[in-house]
User: What shape does this take?
Amino acid sequence: METPANVTREYTFNRTLKYGCNPQQTPASIYSIKGTEEAFKVLNGNPGYINLLDALNAYQLVREARDSLGVPAAASFKHVSPAGVGLAVPLTEAEKKAYEVNEELSGLALAYTRARNADPMSSYGDFAAMSDPVDIETAKKLKFEVSDGIIAPGFSPEALEILKAKKSGGYVILEANPNYKPPEIEYREVYGVVFAQRRNQVKIDQTTLDNVKTNITQFPPEAKRDLILAQIAVKYTQSNSVGFAINGQMIGIGAGQQSRVDCTKLAGRKVTTWFLLQHPKVLGLPFKKEVKKVARVNARVRYIEGDFTDAEKQEWNGNFESVPPPLTQQEKDEWLSTLTGVSCSSDAFFPFRDGIDTCARYGVSYVVQPGGSQADDSVIKACNEYKMVMAFSNLRLFHH
Assistant: This one.
């Protein structure tokens, strides 16, 4: 495709926004490319600038996951990166307890339950995205979550009425156009300079796992699913990014760090919290009956972290019928040592083996990354030492 010397693009006004990224950034609005279909319709509420950035990135992610993996997918987005992504994969008994699930869930409700519980504190006030039309079970799950809005390719009449009642009628509901095809070339303006590039339309599927570099060469089917999901997730995460997945769910995403090993450590810290939320002492915390779900989530996470100030600890104690004993470091370490089978995707190569050494602390057994570093041999050696399976995808997935 040739680079044109001059480009003329005509836009059609779509709607005024309350403001841009910040209240001082007015006026703000969105436009459609003249002569093209609209990517979505607003069914309810008044979406903001960041709401729409979240929605359009998140919907691309779940649609791509649905196309590649063939099951319903959901994402929970905050500030243009996923806090969590999930597939319609049945919950383990421990996950049911940790996620407070007592009822049967539809496939889509199951996917959102996984997405929302990857990093529940970060998902507070999320923008949700669904790969499939929203059914009543999914709407009922969302009804009790603190969420800013949702995008999906459709809604059942009952689901739409439930969601319209959220936030005193102000919940943002966007209906994605499933037939919309974005232009092949995308443009962005920064400081008066216009950037143009081909959209990142690469398809992520099992072929990205063919180039295995380690002594152990076989990925189990569940690991292939999780590695594909993790690659799609980091494709729509602010770079640098590293993502960990298991059971059809992202369980730790390290986004937007300048250092790749810092991405890996951040993702690992989130994995630690996710897994410790299933610890028997955490599941058995004796909450008072009046403590609401959001407060229970926050209290559990702070119990795991354990670094209270004296004033905070006194306030925290008020959540419980009796003050629980601390979760000791030894208990944490023993529990975390049982985690295995985690899949890791990195949006660019690991420049040193320290990324793999960090992965090993968080149960990682399977890795996919582009490869191409001068340190590839030492990274492969590290994977072999930890008995990991690693493939080079030859596919960088930076996203900004």
About this structure: The mean pLDDT is 96. The longest strand covers residues 11-17. The two ends are 23 Å apart (CA to CA).
